[in-house]
Amino acid sequence: MQKQESLKDKDGYLLVEKEFTYRGYDFKLVKDFKDGWFIYEKSKKNQKHNKYELVKPKKQDAFVFNGKKIEDKWVYPNDNAFGKTGFDCVSLQVAEARHLSIIQNKEDQEEKEALKNEEVRVPTKSFTIKDFMKANPKLSYSLAYVKIKELIDSQEIRLEGTKKAKRGKASNVYIKR
Question: What is the pLDDT of residues 22-54, one digit of tens each?
Answer without folding.
Answer: 999 999 999 999 999 999 999 998 888 899 999
